[in-house]
Amino acid sequence: MKKNNTYCEPFCIREGYNFEVHYVSYEEQDPYSCFMHFHEVHELIVFEEIEGRFFYHQGESDLQDQDLVFTPALETHDFECTDRQKSWFIVQFLPSFLEENGLAQAEAFFKYGMHLRLDDGSKEKIRQVVAWLHESYEADPFSDKSQSLLKLLLSWIAEVAKPVKEPHTHNQSRPMNDARLEPILNLFRRNKSVDLSLNEAADLCHLSPSYFSRLFKSVFRYNYSEYSIRHRLYSAARLLCQSGYSVTDVSYELNFSSPSHFIALFKKQFGVTPKKYKQSFLDRAKEGEVEVS
User: Fold this and answer.
1) CA 90 to CA 284: how far, in whole Å?
2) What's the helix, strand, coil split of the chain in %, to 5?
């Protein structure tokens, strides 16, 4: 399986698709970047090799090789990985997929963000199914085989996987989705760039600037200014892959002060310049590798 070091995790799937599957891997010391984020779709990650921590609505937990992570649509989550070699399959699917395919047990199971673990007898079987799914998806994402393999994967995981933290179905406080931040969170959901000052964002949430600042950092692990920049940089990475925009076009589209400033921030975040990032994506697309949406 081909390696792929520069990767921007899609926050939504392509129009007309009901799921996407990508394979991601990093060699030791390869640059890796993530931040507290959310998706418009459900997300399942099947790790092969991993060392780090998962941050989600139940708090945080240590990741091990062959663990699984599920995050429902619009729930914030984040990863902190060591420099060790790491790889995983990422499966994103519409919430309606479960209902439309009669997966009642899976639909009941996949309601909450979960860090999941498999028994030794199930680990290789699940990894093989998701590898088959990825292979079938790349050949034809709309085929009966692709749809059937996704149904098999989700139903099997719902049957055999166990949450690391129990009980995952109880009502809990959800600090990563604090309702008081919902107005600004909605702006991040709907826009590629959010240009409100801290005072304006606090006012939108009907909070004092000092309290808003403390609350925002407790939820997102970055202060408001840092998070806004990261949000724009991830939007930039997706624009570079999805469109004919030039680096200069993207820098102005997302309200960076200048192309040179954008390039410097992008390289610091992703370890490569925007031009090299885009070229890497184009090269992979020509070779038939992962296409990011």
Assistant:
1) 17
2) 45, 15, 35
DSSP lists the bridge partners of residue 44 as: 70, 91
pLDDT of residue 76 exceeding 60: yes
The size of the chain, in residues, is: 293
User: What is the enclosing helix (H) or strand (E) of 183?
Assistant: helix 182-190
Local structure of residue 41 (DSSP, 8 states): S
Contact 36, 234 (CB under 8 A): no
Q: What is the DSSP string of 45-77?
A: EEEEE--EEEEETTEEEEE-TT-EEEE-TT--B
Beta-bridge mates of residue 69: 45, 115
pLDDT value at position 29? 82
d(CA 262, CA 268): 10
Q: Could you give phi then psi for residue 168, rounded to 5 degrees? A: -80, -10
Mean pLDDT, the chain, rounded, equals 84
Contact (CB, 8 A) for 45 and 98: no
pLDDT band at 77 (very low <50, low <70, confident <90, very high): confident
Q: How far apart are CA 30 and CA 106, in angstroms?
A: 35
**Omega prior to 167 cis, within 30 of 0:** yes
| Top-ranked range on mean pLDDT: pick from 115-119, 229-233, 236-240, 282-286 | 115-119
Structure tokens at 27: 């060699």
Q: Which two tokens stand for residue 111?
A: 């309601």
